[in-house]
Fold this sequence. Notes:
The protein is of the alpha/beta class and 471 residues long. Helix content is 40%, strand content 23%. Helix 13 (386-399) links the parallel strand 19 (376-381) and strand 20.
Amino acid sequence: MNNIDEKExxxxxxxxxxxxxxxxxxxxxxxxxxxxxxxxxxxxxxVSKGLAIFQKIGLKIDAGSFSLTNVEPELKxxxxxxxxxxxxxxxxxxxxxxxxxxxxxxxxxxxxxxSNVSMVSVPRDLTVEIGEGSGWYNKINAVYxxxxxxxxxxxxxxxxxxxxxxxxTEIQYYAMVNFDGFTQIVDAVGxxxxxxxxxxxxxxxxxxxxxxxxxxxxxxxxxxxxxxxxYARSRHSNDNGEGSDFMxxxxxxxxxxxxxxxxxxxxxxxxxxxxxxxxxxxxxxIKVSEFTISDIQAALNVAEDFNEKNGxxxxxxxDPSAANGQVVSNQNAYNADGTVSAYRIGPKLGLGKYADINxxxxxxxxxxxxxxxxxxxYVYNTGLGNTEVTAKVKALKEQxxxxxxxxxxxxxxxxEGTYIYTHTENxxxxxxxxxxxxxxxxxxxxxxxxxxxxxxxxxxxLLGKAIQLAQ
Length: 471
């Protein structure tokens, strides 16, 4: 009986020892599964939120984004396969305007052969046809406003087409940002470092319906978004010519490059959180052409290539001084009393005629270094002979149109050897190297028989007699 009682008491014990751990294990499994579900839900929500933000500004999910192949994604290129061109547009959304003037228009081009970037600013006052075939000409900053017809995309595409026609390029991407988006981008990267070349004060900087005074001292300084906007937007200073639209265009390019440098010099691009923060902060203030996840990866690859190969950035403005003053001119409208009623510039060949501008843009994209230096080049006969020097100068002008090359006549008639040199140390070096190669000149230093700066040119070329070897 005792044995039976012991069995009745002890027999269930193994069952209890087996079943209790099973319940605990199931509870743990359910807990782990719950955590996994929550984490996955969070990831899905984050991804969907991220995709929603990207899709809001133009992201298109492409099949190539999920490809398992090792093929590197590439950005769209022009028909030559040499360039990717992007149109950067800044739109006026502050002050008393209707917020439709595209006062910043920049065509940025990446050269895959050199890893260099060329930026060409189109001044807002340059006269173009508003709408293809309309026969109506006005400032280019009005193209978007008059052709959008309730659809932002239509206006942007027409502005893109107009800039393509003007510059002779094929533009693959475009991005338009308003003032709020501009300040948010600069603030999102922690501000930008700008080297202010000339001090200036603008007493009429627009602030809503009023004006305020903004000042900038020369030197390197870190600017937040609002300060950078003031620096890029100011155009009423009387100091050092900084009040012109053309100087403003150059400052805008400097700010864009400063943002690029800040992004590429930090961990922004390698931090998904930082990238999402940057994109989400400007999603409501930027419009871009359709792009894909593959485009994003390809753009990161281009940025890495630009850094690794020490790519350089060159800046140009299509103002009346561009191309040695040969492609764009002042074309103001005047009142009866002779005062200017409307300030405008336009192509020298006439309204809608862009052949020389196309040629100039093509040349500066191929050889941006020498065209950005914009050197004043004087050629002297020092013994070669007037006829021979005249022929060489003519050939140089044909090979390098839109550059300032001048035949200054005979300086000496008995000197031997050829020379090319710059009067300013470490400046105009690309021009000196380019022309030395073309003319087969080895000597790049000023000869002893030249004791002054001649006529104040940037680069001097001396063409003398062939050196006679001693017998």
